[in-house]
Amino acid sequence: MSFTPIIEPPSPVEALSDVLMRIVSELHDVAYLIERIEPQLIELGGSEILNSPDSMKVMQGIDLAVQKSRGLAEFIDTITGEIPQNWSIDVATALSLVKLAEMQKALGGGTRHGHSQPLSKAAGDFDFF
Question: Across residues 10-14, what is the average pLDDT?
Answer without folding.
Answer: 71
